[in-house]
Amino acid sequence: MIYTLPQLPYAHDALEPRMSKETIEYHYGKHLQTYIDNLNRLTEGTPFSEVPLETLILTATGPVFNNAAQVWNHTFFFNTLTPAPEPMPLELKDYLIRDFGSVETFKEKFKKAAIEIFGSGWAWLAQDPSGRLHIIQESNAGNPLRAGYKPLMTIDVWEHAYYIDYRNKRAAYVDSCWDLIDWKKVTERLHEPSPAARVADLSEETIVVGKASKEEVKEMIEETIEEDEEASMQRYVCIICGWVYDPEEGDPEGGIAPGTPFEDLPDDWTCPACGVGKEHFEPER
User: pTM here?
Assistant: First the structure.
């Protein structure tokens, strides 16, 4: 399986002025494409190369999980937006009133959750197995699928999602997103099977990857988890000044805790020695 850039359901300038063509070109066209390229590179020639994204989200760790989840998260986010939003369906309103008291309370709580995520991440509206709705904060590449919830909508609060249009005004960006949400699609997702069902509903006899069964796929994935974890601790070297980023040490003075993989560094992180960005780093050989 070669992961590819999904087709947007609207033109790059269709969300203006709330989300500019430039933001779409960078966020969708460059950032999402980078995650896809990384995922293809990481999975080529491994058991992961023939696995659906949902399987990777539920079973993988380290760089494979991070890039697979970011591909899934971004695709889901862009497909939740529309240039021609319609009023929220009554059915969804009823669900929100039942679980949050009112639509206005839901929006207030969701906005608060999105704004208060420390660093990069995602705010989600998700449905638990009993049908109740929840607002969930996830940092970095987090996805509620891993906790057994079905995603209904999300807002990306990584800085690259809003910095071109809103600079550091995350709250203004979240407010603008409300006017781009496809509430009809969110409502339809209430009754769709969870994406995790593509993995959970597979029987022992089902052939899911070439000639491998579900259990065989799990075994192959588990065998590569340790390799992923080792890869997540790869040291990176600044090609400008030679400074080495060691995940085991992090960058405490720059607010990066020890144990943080290079892939998880914020987009605005810079080399402590010379000040250049992440794009000027390469794996240590």
Answer: 0.73
